[in-house]
Design goal:
Largest sheet: 6 strands, parallel
Strand content: 15-25%
Order of helices and strands: EHHEHEHEHEHHHEHEHEHEHEEHH
Distance between the termini: 50 Å
CATH class of the largest domain: Alpha Beta
Shape: globular
Structural class: alpha/beta
Number of strands: 11
Radius of gyration: 20 Å
Helix content: 25-40%
Strand order of the largest sheet: 8-7-6-9-10-11
Number of domains: 2
């Protein structure tokens, strides 16, 4: 049997599909192919359960030809949008699509009526494989960075388990702690702190770390897989609702996840993370959640969902 999985973005969403990849491969022995964007190659290139990676960046019609030539027995569409439907219809007769529960999300965001299913998005992803007899193996998420994590830490002057990683990035500003809160957080830390993020987070990382000798800013200075290796050796990981949070969960790390305009009820909280993991959020705000994704700035102007976060609770946990 040959099965194509489709998920185009983003880092976190792709990491959340890894139980589907593993369970399909191990329980059906199928050839598992994965269609995604070239930008996310590093997220999947070392995954031993994927037989072939295919990238969206091929010319559209040429890509459809390539997919037809593979003669897939089934397609599992974990993106379920217009584009993923375009690359699945006519390619295989057996197509399973992920239920995005968009109407339930709309109700929660706009009317604050929670009709969302009471289970993680991973379980909803895995529901697409039930007709193949696949069951959740309970092993959580996967991430394969392909590096020697000890050597990566040594390269950046870090000792294993002697530091806390803080992933300061996020796809939208309303999912991220503001500068003052980040500075407050690291100033109270009794541990060495490593800041992780992409190039877009470099300036913020510099501003957070400039007055603290115990803070190392690696934002924009190391690759995604190097960041994953650093996370693997972290004592704690503090992260927003973002891709590095899910990578930390793949390594079963103790995670303090910080929630702003989005909420854990959307089903994307850390999956099978360490036993000490905690979710930090400001509850009972009438405006929250204000979006299923995020905004460049708070629609209300006060940004209470992040400005009222108690960083003392976080530092009390990591300093124990």
């Amino acid at each position: 049997m040959k099965i194509l999985i489709i998920r185009f973005s983003s880092i976190g969403d792709i990491v959340l599909t890894t139980p589907v990849i593993r369970c399909l491969k191990k329980q059906t022995c199928a050839d598992v192919h994965y269609l995604t964007k070239k930008a996310y190659e590093s997220t999947l290139q070392n995954n031993p359960y994927i037989d072939k990676l295919i990238f969206l960046e091929n010319v559209t019609e040429n890509l459809r030809t390539i997919l037809k030539q593979e003669s897939y027995d089934a397609i599992i569409d974990l993106h379920n949008n217009i584009r993923s439907r375009r690359f699945s219809i006519g390619i295989a007769s057996n197509i399973k699509r992920f239920d995005k529960v968009n109407f339930s999300k709309w109700l929660f965001v706009n009317l604050k009526i929670n009709r969302l299913p009471d289970h993680h998005i991973v379980d909803r992803y895995l529901a697409t494989t039930q007709s193949f007899g696949v069951k959740n193996d309970g092993e959580g998420l996967d991430y394969f960075h392909g590096l020697d994590a000890n050597n990566v830490c040594k390269k950046y002057g870090l000792g294993a388990d002697s530091f806390v990683s803080v992933a300061i990035g996020g796809q939208h500003c309303t999912k991220k702690l503001p500068l003052g809160k980040l500075q407050e957080l690291v100033s109270r830390s009794g541990q060495k702190v490593v800041l992780l993020g992409g190039r877009e987070d470099t300036e913020m990382g510099d501003a957070v770390s400039e007055n603290f000798n115990h803070v190392i800013n690696l934002c924009g200075k190391i690759s995604l897989n190097e960041s994953a290796a650093v996370i693997e050796k972290s004592r704690w990981v503090i992260a927003h609702d973002t891709g590095l949070m899910h990578i930390a969960a793949a390594f079963k790390k103790d995670i303090i996840s910080i929630w702003g305009n989005t909420v854990p009820e959307f089903g994307m909280f850390p999956y099978c993370a360490g036993n000490k993991s905690r979710m930090i959020e400001v509850r009972n705000l009438s405006c929250r959640p204000c979006s299923k994704i995020g905004f460049d700035q708070c629609p209300k102007g006060h940004f209470n969902c992040m400005n009222q976060i108690n960083t003392g609770i976080i530092t009390n946990l990591i300093n124990c």
